């Protein structure tokens, strides 16, 4: 089974080229101003313009208002990844108004957190399980944290799903083996510093997932 991979938080043409060249299924563009990976909708449009049609364009948003959602769609984003406290009702409304595919992030620290995914059955298209950040953290993700992957083993997922949180080229095989993930998402694990994508680490990660 081929593992599909999303490289998240790309902000340079070099990172885009490396991700596409080594087989990424999706590229994520972080439209959240507090993030070190922040890009504007116009920057995302420019960066994603040369992407081939088979690579998904993902806008990563945190409790976005309708104006920002409109800018993301106008930039050519085909998937909205919602990383805030968006309710199932808000997800349904965005799916209807934009026609985009919707991914909803579920932040996980304990088994009880997984229960939140069920509320998005019929609302979102995919669940992305990520590590829950500390209370009061400025960022909802992308901090290199991981949760116990054993929590996902045998879990009855309500939707197609992907795994994120603390992955890198050395850990992704173990993460997939334990969790059963068929799709993974990486951000800080392919960086040399926060927000600075490393093309060699991107290549190594995608080569690692390609061997699974």
Please, could you describe this protein's structure?
This protein has one domain: Alpha-Beta Barrel (TIM Barrel). The chain has helices at residues 13-21, 41-48, 66-74, 88-98, 111-114, 172-179, 199-210; strands spanning 4-8, 26-30, 56-61, 79-82, 101-108, 126-131, 161-163, 183-186, 191-193, 196-197. The strands form two sheets. The chain has an eight-stranded parallel sheet. The protein has a two-stranded antiparallel sheet with strand order 9-10. By secondary structure, the chain is an alpha/beta fold.
Topology:
Elements: E1 4-8, H1 13-21, E2 26-30, H2 41-48, E3 56-61, H3 66-74, E4 79-82, H4 88-98, E5 101-108, H5 111-114, E6 126-131, E7 161-163, H6 172-179, E8 183-186, E9 191-193, E10 196-197, H7 199-210
Parallel strand pairs: 1-2, 1-8, 2-3, 3-4, 4-5, 5-6, 6-7
Antiparallel strand pairs: 9-10
Helix pairs in contact: 1-7, 2-3
Q: Considering the protein shown, what is the CATH homologous superfamily?
A: Aldolase class I
Give the proportion of residues in helices. Answer: 25-40%
Runs in which pLDDT lies below 50 for 5 or more consecutive residues are: none
Structural class: alpha/beta
CA radius of gyration is: 16 Å
Mean pLDDT: 94
Overall number of structural domains: 1
Number of strand segments = 10
Counting DSSP H or I runs of 4 or more residues, the number of helices is: 7
